[in-house]
Design goal:
The chain has one domain. 93% of the residues lie in helices and 0% in strands. It contains one helix and no strands.
């Protein structure tokens, strides 16, 4: 259960980082 929670948390962090990088790249292009 703890391991699953850690995996979910890590996935959320990675998704947030990816979204931030994409947002920054999109802003730079504009």
């Amino acid at each position: 259960m703890v391991a699953a929670a850690v995996v979910v948390a890590a996935a959320a962090v990675v998704a947030a980082a990816a979204a931030a990088i994409i947002d920054v790249s999109f802003n730079i292009e504009q």
